[in-house]
Design goal:
May regulate the disassembly of focal adhesions. Did not bind receptor-like tyrosine phosphatases type 2A. The protein is mainly α. Helices cover 60% and strands 2% of the residues. The strands form two sheets. It has a two-stranded antiparallel ribbon with strand order 1-2. A two-stranded antiparallel ribbon has the order 3-4. Helix 1 packs antiparallel against helix 2, helix 1 (2-149) packs antiparallel against helix 9 and helix 4 (253-262) runs antiparallel to helix 5 (269-275).
Length: 578
């Protein structure tokens, strides 16, 4: 039994050993497969690591190329900015040269007409010279005959006397001819034949002689009061210092005509010469006389002439009178309004007219935009504060890191565009051309805000981050004081925001105002677009001298004066009635 039972026990143990062997062999096979997979994965990881290292090296190369490209882009932007600055300078120079060319063409037209008259006069004088030479030949022949024959003394004496009479009648013409030739050769203006300074008169004996023997000697730059139309005018022929020493009322006709031509009103010289006797004629004339006698239809030409004559009468020296109409056209470039240069040039608007320009004058010059009216007003404020210094506006960036409002107020339109490029808004800077935006408008006009500037720059409303960046840069530029003033003015009741499309209409008198016209004395200064005297500015009864700083220059002073005037009117209206 025991042996019989032992047999089955051994069979069972051998079956378990076989199952363990199978598992062991299976595990060994799994181990080998895992080792194979690990080796394959190791090879793949090594291959991927090589690719990663290659990608990192290529990434570094691309990063280096990107940095170099950014540097090249910055240099290109700087180069483009310099080219735009050069382009603006060249455009300004071209416009200035065009105006000079127009003036030169006008003077050339007058010079061509006078040259034609001179050529005709020269032909006549050559004919006279030939006649005189012929008479001299006859005289020599008679003298030879007289010496050779010496017969019949009485008849010979009669012939000699006749010849002397003929020669005496033509000698002044020969002298006049030689004088004219000397004048033409030396490019000195001469006089017309019908009114030359060498006046001839016939004597009782039938001969011709000169009134003044010294007049035959021609002097350069001499006074030619009785002269007719001059052929050309040289700088030596007009001495303003000499003329200013003599009262304008005593100026001769030619002095007045020469002054008109130098003053930019040369188109009225011909009619003026027929009407004016001396300077007193213009001083005692009315604007209606200017229009009727001189053909001066342009009201701004009449105003220009009136202001100049008033300066002669009052003898008040104004710095604005030193700025001619050519300077005004360049000033329009500086304040960003070059589109009006032709109208201002045709009207001959100079510095004195800028000082006394009115709203209706600007409307006559086709300036209808309310924003452009404010631009010109603030620009005149700046001129007043700088005593009409022709170089007061700054066109290029300086060395200042953070400019003060007193410096920003003198910025030109080009300088504002440079500031936009400095605050990373270079792509919108060209939109300011022709907008009238300059430093004076930004600082002095309380309604001009960052929103107004964004509209002029054509920044879309959906670009909120860009507009916020502009608002921050604008507040930093104008300073805390001006920012606070603009904010208070914008939050005031009845505030009308400044738009880019608003138009200015001419002032019209109502029916209720006609009854007061006779009682009230007209005040011309009330119509000026910028009624600031060259001296002090009165605010709330206190006299203040205008300066280039924010206070004393801004339109806020005008608003205070207007409010004070309104309070006074209300007090008079609500006062006790008698």
């Amino acid at each position: 039994m025991f042996n019989a039972g032992l047999g089955p026990v051994n069979l069972h143990s051998s079956g378990n050993s076989e199952s363990y062997q199978e598992r062991l062999s299976r595990l060994e096979g799994d181990k080998e497969s895992l080792i194979l997979q690990v080796s394959v994965l190791t090879d793949q990881v090594e291959a991927q690591w090589a690719k990663i290292s290659d990608l990192q090296s290529s990434l570094l190369g691309h990063q280096h190329k990107l940095n170099s490209t950014e540097e090249m882009l910055q240099q290109e932007l700087l180069h483009r900015t310099s080219l735009e600055n050069q382009k603006l300078n060249l455009l300004g120079e071209v416009s200035y040269l065009k105006l000079k060319l127009a003036d030169m063409e006008g003077k050339q037209g007058h010079g061509a007409e006078r040259q034609h008259k001179a050529e005709g006069l020269l032909k006549e004088l050559r004919i006279l010279k030939d006649k005189v030479e012929h008479l001299e030949d006859q005289k020599l022949q008679y003298e030879k005959k007289l010496k050779a024959t010496k017969v019949k003394e009485s008849s010979d004496l009669c012939g000699v006397s006749t010849l002397q009479y003929t020669i005496s009648a033509h000698i002044p013409l020969l002298t006049l001819h030689s004088t004219f030739l000397n004048a033409v050769q030396s490019n000195v203006p001469f006089l017309a034949c019908n009114s030359h300074p060498y006046r001839l008169r016939r004597t009782q004996s039938g001969g011709l002689q000169a009134v003044d023997p010294d007049v035959s000697h021609f002097r350069r730059g001499g006074l030619r009061a009785t002269a007719g139309p001059r052929l050309t005018r040289t700088p030596e022929s007009y001495d303003s210092t000499r003329d200013m020493n003599v009262p304008f009322s005593q100026w001769t006709k030619e002095q007045v005509c020469g002054w008109l031509e130098d003053y930019g009103l040369g188109q009225y010289v011909n009619l003026t010469r027929q009407w004016v006797e001396n300077g007193q004629t213009l001083l005692s004339a009315t604007p209606q006389d200017f229009e009727k006698e001189m053909g001066m239809k342009n009201p701004l030409h009449r105003k220009k002439l009136q202001l100049a004559l008033k300066a002669f009468t009052t003898k008040v020296i104004e710095k604005s009178a030193d700025l001619d109409y050519i300077w005004v056209t360049r000033w329009l470039d500086d304040i960003g309004l070059p589109q009006y240069k032709d109208h201002f040039h045709e009207a001959r608007v100079d510095g004195r007219m800028i000082q006394y320009i009115t709203v209706n004058d600007l409307l006559t010059l086709k300036v209808t935009s309310q924003l452009h009216h404010l631009s010109i007003k603030c620009a005149i404020h700046v001129l007043h504060a700088n005593k009409f210094n022709p170089n007061c506006l700054r066109r290029r960036p300086g060395e200042e890191k953070q400019p003060s409002p007193s410096e920003v107020v003198q910025w030109s339109n080009h300088r504002v565009m440079e500031w936009l490029r400095a605050v990373d808004l270079a792509e919108y800077a060209p939109n300011l051309r022709g907008s009238g935006v300059h430093g004076g408008l930004i600082i002095l006009e309380p309604r001009f805000s960052a929103e107004t500037l964004a509209l002029l720059l054509n920044i879309p409303p959906q670009k909120t981050l860009l507009r916020r960046h502009l608002a921050t840069a604008f507040s930093t530029l104008v300073g805390h004081q001006a920012t606070q003033e603009k904010r208070e003015y914008g939050n005031a009741t009845g505030h009308m925001p400044l738009t880019t499309t608003a138009k200015v209409k001419p002032k019209k008198l109502g029916f209720t105002q006609f009854s007061h016209l006779r009682k009230r004395k007209p005040d011309e200064s009330a119509d000026y677009i910028c009624p600031i005297d060259s001296g002090a500015l009165t605010v709330n009864g206190v006299s203040r001298v205008p300066s280039a700083a924010l206070r004393g220059l801004g339109p806020a002073l005008d608003r205070q004066a207007v409010k004070q005037e309104q309070v006074g009117i209300k007090a008079q209206t609500n006062g006790p009635k008698q």
